[in-house]
Protein: Bardet-Biedl syndrome 9
Amino acid sequence: MSLFKARDWWSAVLGEGEEFDQGCLCVGDVDNSGSGHDKVVVGSYMGMLRIFSPHASKSSEEVPADAQLLEVQLQNAIIQVELGKFVSCSDLLHLAVLHPRKLSVFSISGTAGNVEHGDQYQLKLVYEHNLQRTACSMTHGTFGGVSGHHSLCVQSMDGMLMFFEQESYSFGRFLPGFLLPGPLVYNPRTDSFLTVSSARQLESYKYETLAVATEAETRQDQDLSVNSGGKRLTPDWVFVLGEQALEVCVPSFSHSSSFIFILGERNLYCLRDNGQIHFMKKLEFNPSCFLPYASVRDGTTNLLLCNHTNMLLVYQDVTLKWAAQLPFVPVATRLANFPELKGVVTSLSSDGHLLCSYMGTDPSFFSTPKVDAREADYEQVEAEMKRLQKLIREATRTQDILPKSMTDEDLTVKVAVSSSMDDPSQALIPDIDGLLIPSITVQVKLKANSVIQTSKLTVSIQPPLAVTQDQFILEPMDIGSSTSVKFSAFLNGRYLPADLKGEITVSYNSPTGVPKILQSTFTLPLALVCVPSSPAKTTKFKITLDTNQAPVQLSSIFSEFSIKSEDKDGNSLAFQFLPGPKVTLLASKTSQRYRIQSDSFEDMWLVAKELVRRFDQYFSKLGVKDFKKSFSGPLPLQEYFLSVDHHFQLRVSAKQYQDLLSEQAVQFRAIQRRLLTRFKDKTPAPLQNLDTLLDTTYNQVMALADAAEENHTQLEEAFVRLRGSTQLLVLLLSLSQGLTPEQTAILEATLLPLLQDTPQLGWEESCDAAVSHLLRTCLSRSPKDQATSLAHTGAQILGLPRDTDRLKRHISLLCDRIAKGGRLTLASEANVQVPAQVQHLAAPGGIEPIPEVSGDGEDLPQEATKFIKKKHSVKKVRKDKKEESKESSEASVKEGEAADEPRKEKKETKKEPKKDSSSKEKKESSKEKKERDRDKEGKEASKELGDKKVSKKPSAKVKEKKKEPEASED
Structure:
């Protein structure tokens, strides 16, 4: 079939930036001229009401000036327009306009003009109804069989049908089981209302049933008031559609007077008035609107069906008769009669294109022009092919859930930290042990590259650091405009933070309405938490760092601290932290070593991190490219484990406090119930010291709550100290082994899997699971052991451990494996080839798969024997002495045991075929002998045969197992 364009008879573009929908188009003799010619009424969501009288244009103008009869700006958005006899004392047609909270009825009158300006039309309000609920749609008709005038029914967004008889309000009813509003239409033949519910089914309610149903003011009242005056509202019949309906239409022409048409998202339905299906057509496109109209053939109905591919299709029942192309996607279509032409298709788009067209037979003569043959530049094509292949590889390699950020952002964020401290300080705590607490100003500048309506800025910082204001609501920004906010950061606790970094998060909506987030980090200076002091000669903990460059004076590295330092040579510096600990930094005069020493292990982390960072910055400015730093001493694991034990003990105490509080709360409630029973008793009885017991229990509960609160505060401090000591251990391990930044990031994520403790999940169990995973995968002794451990890996339930011995052994083993050359990587699991003997190990969940047999049936007994004899052989084979001594130091890690099992199984499976082949005849002879001796001899013979039976029981099982695959194979 050839596709033809719809012939453009008259068109107009309505407004700019306005929106239209299904109910915004209406056709009829709105001014009651009596000529039989229709006018087009269009309302928009912006409140514009327009009336047109289209006619053929003889000039080159797109929209003739005399085609528009009226244009009025109403105060509220127009949801739907309808024509009908809505005034009780008049038989003329009036215009009903539905607003979100108002229903208005207007009369349109025209006055003949005596000059060249033409006729004048006026819009006059007849009456209006203020709606108590937000309206969604409306329908009209002769409700109750009353002829001569029309009534209105408005459907609200919460499922209430409000009925109006001209100027008066009749009643309101709630639809049962309502969730979202659907199409609503009135069927005058059965005096019923049709709607599509959220259950995706067509429901029919008679007007009489609605009138006598239960009166309710709210949906809850409708559900509860069953025993009141009316009846519960139920539909007369229901038809399940299985999809949401776009439109429902009941044609009023005679030869199709018993049909109901429903346009679904993928199907077209035609039902009879009693709910029985007449026909259904499956659509191969996404429809937008439809309109049934009279057919020239009896017993059939024509339909105009528009879809989202700009097509106008004409169907006769289910047969496609014509197809025409439209310049837009219509949301509403009507048929109208105009003076020059009858049966004009009037279509309206969502952005205000109004078109009056008819079916034409002029095809589109557009053809694709021929492309000039040009010689291809093969070098350019090959370069482009390489570039595209590179993009494809990058796209397949990075499997990110979130999309990549665009190069040009809508908003630019820059953070600047002041070079000097605030004067006066903005800190909440004035001093700690006589040391004044300073504060520093941070300025955030934002520049908009597009229009930003609403944005919010959030500041996050590590405890116990705090800021004067952590949230900012920003004003709307235009293109090119900029704004800035300021806040001060300071120390707000009596312990050191684990990190001096902060993060700025800006959330905003793009001009298209997409929510976006920008993040930027900043680093606070070390001088915010410490002051210069005199060096300490004797300390408890010491760390020595080596470099490959000449010794550097510390005064050139820490210039802001050397000014107030007492050491004039520049070989030593002391940092007195505000919470109390002191850290001394010493530089050797002859060698290239630097020592960090303090009485607190975790407090050396900030100085060590700052020293490494400033070394990199200092030598990069000098142009030194081969600068290296290292740590050659033993790892301070024992000092690190002190922080681990302290944190764990506080977690155990928190659990004990929680249990004690639960017990005391149960006792407190039990005493309260006893007292309440005594007080309610009519005959007073002695309290028997229950009041004293209640006061004592209450005091115990309060004391436990205070102790739990104090323990929680100490736990937060201990976790921050644990983070500092863990980061110091990661730094020393990376310096000693020369780890890359990627490997250091993996190690840090393993040892610091949490940013804070929670009652459900703590640091110990999370760190133990992460370390165990590395030991089983990339840090295992061999690829064979790694594959074995991966095969045995199952789900692990994390919980508070009994002690920290297992965790400390795993961390020690992790450091030992890395020191011996272990490679930290996340892609190791995918690169390991699973050995053949490991492929048949137990699958996750403890279920052993049945081995598949390929080839002839002769190999079947040997494979089955291997599979069954695993369990018996593993128990009997002893461990090798060399393996046992090697695994004694690593008894806590289970991958060693998992790695030994395949070796034992391999040895046993090699011996099985010989034993199996030699014992076939013995099994058969033992059976016959057993049956013969059971009848002849007594208990002694049966006992001996019983012993033989026990000794040959495994081989008998092998025979039975061998028969099962053979039977299944046959």
The first strand starts at residue 4 and ends at 13.
